[in-house]
Specification:
By secondary structure, the chain is α+β, with helices and mostly antiparallel strands. It folds into two domains: 51 residues, no CATH class; 123 residues, Rieske [2Fe-2S] iron-sulphur domain (Rieske Iron-sulfur Protein, 3-layer Sandwich), CATH 2.102.10. Helices cover 25% and strands 31% of the residues. A hairpin with a 5-residue loop joins strand 9 and strand 10. The radius of gyration is 26 Å and the shape is globular. The termini are far apart. The structure holds FE2/S2 (inorganic) cluster. The site of FE2/S2 (inorganic) cluster has 11 residues, from loops. FE2/S2 (inorganic) cluster binds next to loops.
Length: 183
């Protein structure tokens, strides 16, 4: 004869040992459990070849246009936040926080090719170390403006980038601010 769930639980040895523990002891046990869980998760990521820091990084990938028409290039909308570089056209496509941007690969200070630091989730110039957020906003360094943004608009194939129209934040702040495709 089977027993009811409530009777079975009541008869189970140590079914509610934690109920008898002092509140401080419960809190200590819980904190210890969370520490162990966090350590186990970190160990699992390392085992997969991914450091805990990298797990929160914004990835870098290479891309190429799916369509060319004169001075325009159309890129697929990136599937997730991160940076994609089209080296042939010297364009960086970034998806970040619900928007897509297209940047000139060259640093606005002295035209050095910018680098994406995935772990730091930002751009940095290798020459004079100017730093920029993923949306091109200037953080610090010798540059005097944000990363130069190409004009962009939504296109059936993804995001259309107009290579003939480059918005520089200091000379054209409104155009620069508008140069984004909101998703
Ligand atoms: S060339 Fe990039 S900061 Fe000088």
């Amino acid at each position: 004869m089977s027993s009811s769930p409530s009777k079975s639980a009541a008869n189970a040895p140590d079914a509610c040992t934690a109920c008898d523990a002092a509140p401080d002891a419960i809190g200590a046990d819980r904190r210890a459990f969370l520490r162990h869980a966090a350590a186990a998760a970190g160990a699992a990521l390392v085992a997969l070849g991914t450091s805990p820091l990298e797990a929160f990084a914004l990835p870098l990938a290479f891309t190429s246009p799916v369509r060319r028409d004169g001075e325009t290039r159309t890129y697929p909308v990136p599937a997730a936040d991160g940076a994609e570089i089209d080296r042939d056209n010297e364009v960086i496509v970034v998806r970040w926080q619900g928007a897509v941007y297209a940047f000139n690969l060259a640093c606005p200070h002295q035209n050095t090719a910018l680098r994406w630091l995935a772990a730091d989730r930002r751009f940095q110039c290798p020459k004079h170390k100017s730093k920029y957020q993923p949306d091109g906003t200037f953080i610090e360094g010798r540059a005097t403006r944000g990363m130069d943004r190409f004009a962009v608009r939504r296109d059936p194939g993804g995001v259309l980038v107009d290579l003939s129209t480059l918005h520089k934040q200091d000379a054209d702040p409104q155009g620069w601010a508008a140069a984004a495709v909101r998703l």
